[in-house]
Amino acid sequence: MKLLEYTKHIKSKVDEYMSKKVIGPINVKKLYDASYHLIGAGGKRLRPTLVVLGARIAGAQEDQVIPAAASVELMHTFSLVHDDIMDRDEYRRGVPTVHKLWGEPLAILAGDLLFAKAYEALLDVEQYGIPPDRIVEATKILTWIAVTLAEGQTLDMNFEERMDVSEEEYLEMIEKKTAAMFKGSLMIGAILGGGAKETVKKLGEFGRLTGIAFQIQDDILGIIGDEKVLGKPVWSDLREGKKTIIIIHALNNATADQRKQILSVLGRRDASLDELKQVAGILKSLGSIDYAIGKAKEYTMKALSILESITTSDSEAKDMLKEMAMFIIKRRY
Amino acid sequence: MKLLEYTKHIKSKVDEYMSKKVIGPINVKKLYDASYHLIGAGGKRLRPTLVVLGARIAGAQEDQVIPAAASVELMHTFSLVHDDIMDRDEYRRGVPTVHKLWGEPLAILAGDLLFAKAYEALLDVEQYGIPPDRIVEATKILTWIAVTLAEGQTLDMNFEERMDVSEEEYLEMIEKKTAAMFKGSLMIGAILGGGAKETVKKLGEFGRLTGIAFQIQDDILGIIGDEKVLGKPVWSDLREGKKTIIIIHALNNATADQRKQILSVLGRRDASLDELKQVAGILKSLGSIDYAIGKAKEYTMKALSILESITTSDSEAKDMLKEMAMFIIKRRY
């Protein structure tokens, strides 16, 4: 598979760069260890690959934007570290979360450091001949991602206490919490590559749509995924009371009894595996999972049609974006 | 007093700008309210004033750098919000801290939002005719401040558990936690104003030295300050076991009995007012407070001699920096 090979290739370059970037004085080694923890624990590096492909489509060389590719991964990791504290998650990428290992105060700081390092990385592209006006524009997008992530996480947390979240509200939330990062990654790449306004806009829209599909797929895997492959406990979304598109569909289509059963488990951190399994069964029987699969496909199709309309001399990069959109809704991890 | 008037003038401009910057969609109003809380609660806006004075000395107009001045205040506020969570502080600027009012998860997010808004603000200077290469340089400094703040807070927290912190270690910590922000503020101003390398460097060094003096004065006020004027409980540094220059001097000069008494109170959050008062008395009798006062003066004198060597056509701005250095060690809040 062309894309997966390329993602691995980008991962090795980006990871090498990050391992040199997230390193500090010996007397604050703990802070840097905590910051590097989730980076070292794995991850597919889809977002960095989006930056590089966006830049290639716009006309830049891969090596010019490796620091920018690392930048969005650092920003992504920052948000994982802080979200895990807020959501009280204990596992991520198959390892204990940062706050579980180092405590909350240092986990807050580790997130803050990664946030700053995301900017440090982006500004490094200056050394690869990217002109300052493009760097300023890209930095605006990185900042827009950060603001939008915070708003998205706020909505997500608000929803946990509410039982009447609509599909529109869910879509707004994942657009902010997940899709903005995909959109921003492609835009940063395209801007640094000197892409025309129209190209930047179209790539951003492609990213937004595949980002929405990615999150819906994530929500699906939260119900039917394999714990060992995912690296985190399945059904934790149910335990945390996350209002995913699956839950929203189910609550809207359940009988009074089914609704009661779903609500008796949702958001209860001490729910037993048996209870969770039963609710998962109800979600399946109501067609809520198939509904989500259909929605993810719908967004992916829209994304692909936008991608088609982009003209570039790098048809290989464009083909890989196409493959990425299709991979996202087929993935099992 | 010329400087205090000017600080008020800058405060009104910067505050107006921030009130328009820290505002968001109605469905995440809570996040923006929490983010704005400490901004609205007061503060002298010394750091923004440093940005503006640095820019004026380098040759820019005050109004060109108001967003940059707001930027460092937003970065400062971010660090206060997160530090208050880590230090379990309950009051700041005379009001309950953000996590006390909105809970830790939202306080973490509010800090993150302020962090992002600091960048958003700095990038706004583009609209006032500042060229992109200067914006990129200034953004590097803002990022350096953020990295350094996280390292400084890590050291500060490490020190709480240690009883053998040296004066050198303390100075390194406050250089990162406090002085970097003063240094960075002046450098950002000077860079945006198009100052010569030598001017940027000297203003940075002036900022670093006054920043150290500022923190020493803060530590002094933590023992002899007035609670109502400070807006936070006096002696909380003792309760939290902060290793200030005063404590370090006292531990190095105490009799065995005095040392025992100090250590029996230091870091004990349930220490009584009587116990705290007694320890404060020991610190005074050992000359530790006078020692700190002398040190603060020493750094201020060094700062002033560097300031003297800077040439500028804006002698008014230079005079105000001089006044600022002297105000810092005389202030009672």
Shape summary of chain A:
globular
Q: Which structural category do the helix and sheet elements of chain A fall into?
A: mainly alpha
Q: What average pLDDT do the residues of chain A reach?
A: 96
The description of the largest β-sheet of chain A is: 2 strands, antiparallel
Total beta-strand segments of chain A: 2
Determine the strand fraction of chain A and express it as a percent band. under 5%
Q: From N to C, what is the helix and strand string of chain A? A: HHHHEEHHHHHHHHHHHH
Task: Compute the number of helices of chain A.
Answer: 16
Distance from N terminus to C terminus of chain A (CA atoms, Å) equals: 17 Å
Helix percentage range of chain A: over 70%
Oligomer: homodimer
**Would you identify the regions of chain A where 5 or more consecutive residues have pLDDT less than 50?**
none
What pair of chains forms the biggest interface? A-B, 44 and 44 residues
Rg of chain A over CA atoms, rounded to whole Å, is 20 Å
Strand order of the largest sheet of chain A: 1-2
List the helices and strands and how they pair.
Two copies of one chain form a homodimer.
Chain A: H1 2-21, H2 29-40, H3 46-58, H4 66-87, E1 91-92, E2 95-96, H5 98-102, H6 104-123, H7 132-160, H8 167-192, H9 197-224, H10 227-230, H11 236-239, H12 245-253, H13 256-265, H14 273-285, H15 288-308, H16 315-330
Antiparallel strand pairs in A: 1-2
Polypeptide structure, described:
The structure is a homodimer of 333-residue chains. With 333 residues, the first copy, chain A, is mainly alpha-helical. The first copy, chain A, is 76% helix and 1% strand. Chain A is built from 16 helices and two strands. The first copy, chain A, has helices spanning 2-21, 29-40, 46-58, 66-87, 98-102, 104-123, 132-160, 167-192, 197-224, 227-230, 236-239, 245-253, 256-265, 273-285, 288-308, 315-330; strands at residues 91-92, 95-96. In chain A, strands 1-2 form a two-stranded antiparallel sheet. In chain A, a hairpin with a 2-residue loop joins strand 1 and strand 2. The first copy, chain A, is globular and about 65 Å long. The A-B interface holds A 24-25, 27-28, 30-31, 82, 85-86, 104-106, 108-109, 111-113, 115-117, 119-120, 123, 126, 131-133, 135-136, 139-140, 142-143, 146-147, 149-151, 153-155, 157-158, 172 and B 24-25, 27-28, 30-31, 82, 85-86, 104-106, 108-109, 111-113, 115-117, 119-120, 123, 126, 131-133, 135-136, 139-140, 142-143, 146-147, 149-151, 153-155, 157-158, 172.
